Amino acid sequence: MKHLAAGLILVALGAAAHVAHADDTDIDVRSFDYLDVVETSDGSVWKGIVVEQTPGVQYKLVTSDGSVHVIKAGDVVKLTKQRNPWRQPTPMANMTPSAMSTGPMGRGDNSLGAEASTGPSLPAPYAHSGLRAQADLAIEWGTGDMKNVAVSFAPNVRIGYEQLYGNFGLEAGGMLRWTDWRAGFETDDMIWTLETQAYGRAALHVARAAPYAGVAIGTDINYVYSAQADMSQTNVGFGMNLQFGLPVAITPGFALELGGDYHPGTDTLIDGLSGSVSYFALRLGGQGRF
Question: Which domains does the chain have, with CATH numbers?
Answer without folding.
Answer: 2-102 (2.30.30.100), 130-289 (2.40.160.20)
